[in-house]
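User: Structure please.
Assistant: Input sequence and predicted structure:
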Amino acid sequence: MKLPKRLSIKIFASNPEVVDTAEFVPVLQRWIQRNAIQGELLIDVVDYKHVYQGPGVMLIGHESDYGYDLAEGRHGLLYTIKNYDVRTLSELVNLSLARAIHAAKLLQGENSLNGLSFSTSELQIKFLDRLAYPHNEQTITTAQKATHEVLSSILGEVTTEAITNDSREPIGFTVKFANSDDLDTWASQVKQTTAV
């Protein structure tokens, strides 16, 4: 299966009410100053918290973007990989998961975020490439099967369902997990294909 130009993973906050979105701006700015994501060039923080159910606060990087996303009223860490050097979908998902989990763990450790935590009962994955992944039944079926196989092999038993039938939207899936572990368990299950 052809690799998408970009792939995103969203890990949902389990207690978003404990923190104001504005608190993410200085946190992500510190990540740039402290080089918190080893091996990645972090460039700037963009504040979209004024946009209703929008992208929230984003940390733009060369290899990846990290953000506290507010889409559809479901707050969470949104990780998007843009530049990578892998050859298979399994490697791409694994690398993306490793980086998303690492970032979520960093956010959970930030005192200024008042004990924010992330759920491991579900996540969302999107293939952000309309040329290679046109929104049609055949591509959705193929991508869903591949997503299911890859995530099952990494994190155990999962169910996947398409996020939307709207052909204007990118192909994406909600993935639910039979076992609700924690981020540390997820991190131990993800093969580290790159230093995080």
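Helices lie at 24-34, 89-108, 137-155, 183-189.
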